[in-house]
Write a structure and sequence with these properties.
mainly alpha; 5-stranded mixed β-sheet; 23 helices; globular
């Protein structure tokens, strides 16, 4: 093992320990960024489960507006902490770091085996992937926000790695693949599309021996359905539909310029996960990404013209193709169906796994020194991000929802119920909060377009949210429905219902 490879492995280990250290932050910053607004929904449900209050968002309202597997693991963290919010959060950050590290090891193994070549070059590819996976700003933003993305990515990588083991030859291995895919569906429900494409690809692959191919698909598909079935049954029995209510809350068929631009930006961001600036995105980050993509294309062209383009591992390439097809379908679905286009950059996150594996595999063969320098630069940036995280800030700066929480503390009596569309942060940090956008409150979905009637029926007198949400749920003229503005800070507004 060369010095360069040893240094990359050591660098990755240091980064992993640094990310794990987020669990040791002081209480004043532990409850701040990089946890995202939606992350607080999952954490609230996890805390309530650990306290014996069921799968509820407020201790009473049952919900399915979250991705189950990681939330259940978070519930285990809060349970181990005896229900303590501080202790539970520390364990959640430790859990995220553990899963992140496992993903880095899997990415390293995949990159090492992705392309044929000499052992030294393949070892360098693995080391680049290991450190690069841990150093990428995009991964940091996705993996420590309290949500499922870190587990989703690791399970995709685990399935990808297992795919190259000759799993089709034994029934136990077929069931093992199905179990991994079932867990993947529990990690994020839209992975059901991936499972469907995976099984279709297996049928196509075995079309000359269709009977055997069908048996493989039945074993994999049935196991995946069995593993994920408790969640589907819970959704169907309690809420009358297998889709989580958070999916219904964000559905709105349309094709708009904003969605198209956001989808294109998200896809390019996933293709170059080492260049990501969050709130500081500008034309320069776009230029850098395009330059990186051009450099990658040049690497492929150079190797091909020189007759040195290594052959990819067939099984790994097949899995990558399935991932691309599945996400082509998912990107199209989210683009036309989900109005929350600002989440695309997280929804499309598994696409970045292709870059984490194949870019190091090629770079180790063409530009090993430049790749080494690039990973070192990313590691320096990761150190900066960690420094901000220790101050309670993320790549998107401070959470603007902190303003919302402060307004509620200042103006709303502690025993009064307050409503909000964005209620994740507020609901974790305060009791008596009612969600009205429907992500975690199925009842609210029935009152769309007349939310003021729902609030009146519930006897809720306070509404605190951004101006956009105020207009969406209280109407263009809240006063016409009995609501008056009490206070405002930046774009956040306090409204009170006048009887």
């Amino acid at each position: 093992m060369t010095f360069r490879i040893r240094l990359l492995v050591a660098l990755g280990g240091v980064l992993w320990l640094a990310f794990a250290s987020l669990a040791l932050r002081g209480a004043d910053t532990l409850f701040a960024m990089p946890i995202a607004e939606d992350g607080w929904y999952a954490l609230t449900v996890a805390r309530n489960m650990a306290r014996g209050l069921g799968i509820t968002i407020d201790g009473a309202t049952w919900t399915n507006g979250f991705q189950p597997l990681f939330t259940f693991l978070e519930a285990g963290a809060f349970s181990l902490a005896g229900g303590s919010e501080e202790g539970g959060l520390r364990l959640v950050f430790a859990l995220a770091a553990l899963v992140h590290g496992m993903g880095a090891l899997l990415a390293a193994g995949l990159a090492r085996a992705a392309l044929e070549g000499e052992a030294g070059t393949r070892n360098l590819a693995g080391a680049l992937a290991f450190a690069g996976y841990l150093a990428a700003p995009k991964a940091f933003n996705d993996f420590y926000n309290g949500l499922e993305t870190v587990l989703q990515a690791t399970l995709y990588l685990a399935a990808w790695r297992f795919h190259a083991t000759g799993w089709r030859t034994r029934m136990a291995s077929r069931i093992g693949m199905g179990a991994i895919l079932g867990a993947l569906v529990l990690a994020r429900i839209d992975a059901a599309v991936f499972v469907a494409v995976f099984c279709a690809a297996e049928l196509w692959r075995g079309r000359t021996r269709i009977g055997e191919a069908v048996r493989v698909c039945v074993a994999v598909g049935a196991t995946a359905v069995l593993v994920s079935s408790p969640w589907w049954l819970y959704n169907a029995i309690v809420f009358g539909h297998p889709m989580p209510i958070s999916g219904f809350a964000q559905q709105a068929f349309a094709v708009t310029g904003e969605r198209t631009e956001a989808a294109a930006w998200a896809i390019v961001a996933e293709a170059v996960p080492w260049i990501f600036a969050g709130a500081f995105e500008n034309s320069w980050t776009a230029i850098l990404r395009l330059a990186a993509l051009a450099a990658f294309a040049a690497m492929v062209v150079f190797l091909r013209r020189a007759g040195k383009l290594p052959r990819p591992d067939r099984e790994q390439a097949a899995f990558a193709a399935v991932l691309l097809v599945a996400y082509a379908a998912l990107v199209s679905y989210y683009w036309v169906e989900f109005f929350a286009y600002w989440f695309y950059v997280r929804y499309f996150a598994p696409l970045s796994l292709l870059a984490f594996v194949y870019v190091p595999a090629l770079a180790a063969r063409v530009v090993p020194r430049a790749a080494f320098a690039a990973v070192m630069a990313c590691a320096a940036l990761a150190a900066v991000l960690l420094a901000f995280a220790w101050r309670g800030e993320g790549i998107f700066g401070h959470s603007s929802n902190d303003i919302q929480v402060a307004l509620v503390e200042k103006y709303v009596p502690a025993d009064a119920t307050v409503a909000a569309g964005q209620s994740g942060t507020l609901g974790f940090k305060r009791a008596h909060v009612v969600n009205v956008d429907g992500k975690v409150n199925a009842e609210a979905l029935k009152w769309r377009g007349r939310m003021w009637e729902y609030l009146d029926a519930r006897g809720i007198e306070w509404f605190v949210d951004s101006t956009w949400y105020v207009e969406l749920y209280l109407g263009e003229d809240p006063a016409a429905h009995g609501w008056s503005k009490t206070a405002q800070d930046d774009d956040w507004v306090v409204y009170r219902r006048v009887r």
